[in-house]
Amino acid sequence: MAPTRPQTEQEKFGRHRPLTDRDAHEINRIEELSYDLKVREVMASKIITTSPDVPVSSVLDLLRANRISGVPVVADANLLGVISLEDVVRALQKNELAMPVRNYMTTQLVTVNTFDSIMKAIKAFNEKRLGRLPVIDEHHKLAGIITKGDINRGFLLALERDYKEEEVRRYRASHLFEDIISDRTTLVLRYNIKVGDFNNGGNASSHIKRALLRLGADQQLARRCGIAAYEAEMNLIIHTNNGGILKLEVEPHRISLITTDDGPGIADTQKAQQPGFSTATDKVREMGFGAGMGLVNIQRCVDKMELDSTPGKGTRLTMRIVVPPETLNSKKGSS
Amino acid sequence: MNLQTIVDRLQLTVLTEPRNLSNITPQGGYTSDLLSCVMAGAKSGNIWVTLQAHMNIIAVAAMLDVAAVIITENAQLEEAVIAKANEQNVILLSTPKRSYEVCGNLWEMNIR
User: How far apart (Å, rounded) are the C-alpha atoms in residues A207 and A222?
Assistant: First the structure.
């Protein structure tokens, strides 16, 4: 077969592909969880046990009936040992299935405590190559059993909880306008935009888009506002003397985006709105700006745009978007 | 046609973190190096072909929810740009080919 396919990351770097920031973020979260989550939260607490005084043959039945390969041996809830299939086989070889469990159980045990972080359990699994660990509570009594599967499940549930938290945030935000009663409720978000800060260009508008989605705006509305905010934000970065302020005002029926700056101002605001008209420098154009389409794009995305400018003083750009009824309400908010 | 097939056929290099590309189906494409034109012209789910490689393409790609960005002529990206793309869930692909050729290939593959 012709090797037309580019190498995968794994082929290129083996198991040690360089970590991206996102990997690092996700690993950090799992690592965090490894310390945050306690053994008690993920262990199985309904466990099958046996007594030290019953014959080994009864353990064989227990293992078979429950399809497990070992059980803790317990007296008065104290953990005495573990008897596994291997121990039963040893008894079988000697024809001693009638002997009590205490003669064949393993007593040298690796255990973890209920209050340990699951990191401790993970370490024990890796170092001792064990499949399961008995869990002991603060009174040295057997409290449960933990397996690698329990740990995986614990991680997944915790990550799902993270996800739900975002859902809850979104739900709460989307009810903002219902829950807070006033004659006129306005949510104002203000962003300070630095001149020449291309590296952070688009950050404010992406925050605006996310805020609107959380407030219950649909994708279409959030996108329109996002694009308008982006163009206005870039204008502050590219064209102002000292940067400016990008402000979002959300009301149940209307969204306003307003930028203000203190110069240099626009000599001819009509000309500035013509498609293709640009005063951007070559350096800025090289980065793909200065198409002379910024204000044109804004106009396309918003319902009303006003450009006020005084040369030498500054510019104020007001953009208004009508919110369709029920958009920023409970109806669509939670989905 | 899914993004993995496109990556394989055009021999694109995936710059952002590996993820399952076979469940992403790009809908059409757009090419321009002028960001405002992209803002106006590219649709959500498009493949965006450009030789711009600086930080601001990420904000544009994220805002528009494009399926992926193909950066042509092996334009070099800074680490920070790739990191930002990962953070914003933007897929960056790279090729030594020119934008013209890439668009031609995509068109032939019925990405229209």
Answer: 11
pLDDT at A330: 40
Cα separation of A301 and A289, whole Å? Answer: 18
Sheet holding A142-147, edge to edge: A112-113, A132-136, A142-147
Token couple for A217: 């705006």
Q: Does the structural domain B3-108 have CATH classification 3.40.1390.20?
A: yes
Residue in B closest to A23 by C-alpha:
B17
B87 contacts A25? CB cut-off 8 A: yes
Domains of chain A, first to last:
21-151 (3.10.580.10), 176-333 (3.30.565.10)
Beta strands B29-31 and A244-251, pairing class:
unpaired
Structure letter (DSSP) for residue A18: P
Is 0.80 surpassed by the pTM of this model? no
Residue A268 near residue A278, CB atoms below 8 Å: no
DSSP lists the bridge partners of residue A71 as A83
Are the C-beta atoms of residues A324 and A220 closer than 8 Å to each other? no
User: Six-digit token pair at B65?
Assistant: 């929810």
| Band (A25; pLDDT cuts 50, 70, 90) | low
A237 touches chain B (CB under 8 A): no
CA–CA gap between residue A141 and residue A236 (Å, rounded): 66
